Amino acid sequence: MNSTTSYLRYTRFVLIMVLLVIVAGAVVRMTQSGMGCPDWPTCFGRWIPPVNASQLPPDFEKYLRKQDIDHTFNVYHTWIEYMNRLLGALLGVFIFIHTIWSFRKFRNNNRSVFYISLLMLLAVGFQGWLGKKVVDANLATLKVTAHMIVALVIVVLPVLIISKIKASKVIAGRSLKALTVTTLVLVLVQIILGTRVREQIDEIASGLNYGQRNLWIGKLGQDFLIHRSFAAIVAAACVFLFIRSRSIPILARHSRVILFFMLCSFAAGLAMFFMNIPAVAQPLHLLSGVLLAISLFSYRLKMK
């Protein structure tokens, strides 16, 4: 195995880690564990979280007052949030290693790969700072959404690096390129609309003390109606892209992946609508949407 192959494998590993951190964040929101560790970077003033109430610090009341769920110590919420933070910290270490490796390997040629890796490291550092602001603001919805948008920026950077190293591309017409970019933009708009709907769900759930899930959908506003209708436009664009790709074998295979993730996202969205937003459907809906965006971005990078 040569060094380039090893580097590409490590870059793919970093991409998987980014996706795991995104899923972990979705699980935190799914379980309402966002304030399970109500301080940052420590958790109840400790580097290793408590496992029972007897391990709480003497001034633990000041931490519990920040919570909006039950204002009591919940080891389940605490450790879910802690594992999310731990994965984020590990990702930072892995990306730091990636940046050093990129500098050593590409400082004299293909230097843009190093710059992208450095940007990924800086974005992860910014994401960590933003995570602190989210906790300090007691999960303010705007900051939570910004947290998600930065994650989307981070997740495309390893894909861009892989594309720059694996330079083989196929010739595609201008109309297919335009269709791909349009579909990607539609998916990104849909993800942003989804974060707005998620903000509303958080507010509704908090108002109902995180119970009565059967009432949540009915209380959603116009953003949800737009998000639901926009899903049909995204689906149609993905299907049209799949049909247009059939004449180019490499792109045809890739378009099947795009179609698969679109169907997964659509199915998870339907499950949330018809089954009163089951908790497990939320991270699946988010993950499939992110994978759809990544697949479209990678698809476009294959064209010249």
Throw out a few tags for this protein:
single chain; 304 residues; mainly alpha; Four Helix Bundle (Hemerythrin (Met), subunit A); 2 domains; 9 helices; flat
Explain the overall architecture:
It is a single chain. This protein is mainly alpha-helical and 304 residues long. The protein has two domains: 1-167, no CATH class; 170-304, Four Helix Bundle (Hemerythrin (Met), subunit A). It has nine helices and no strands. It has helices at residues 3-30, 61-64, 75-106, 111-136, 141-165, 174-207, 222-244, 249-274, 281-301. It is flat, with a radius of gyration of 21 Å. It starts with a helix and ends with a helix. The model has no long low-confidence stretch (mean pLDDT 86).
Condensed summary:
With 304 residues, the chain is mainly alpha-helical.
Question: Number of DSSP helices?
Answer: 9
Task: Classify the secondary structure makeup into a structural class.
Answer: mainly alpha
List the domain count as a whole number. Answer: 2
Poorly predicted ranges: none
Q: What series of H and E elements makes up the topology?
A: HHHHHHHHH
How would you sum up the major sheet?
Answer: none
Proportion in β-strands = under 5%
Question: Which geometry do the CA atoms define?
Answer: flat
| Total E-strand runs | 0
State the distance separating the first and last CA atoms. 29 Å
Helix content: over 70%
* Integer-rounded radius of gyration: 21 Å
On the 0 to 100 scale, the average pLDDT is 86
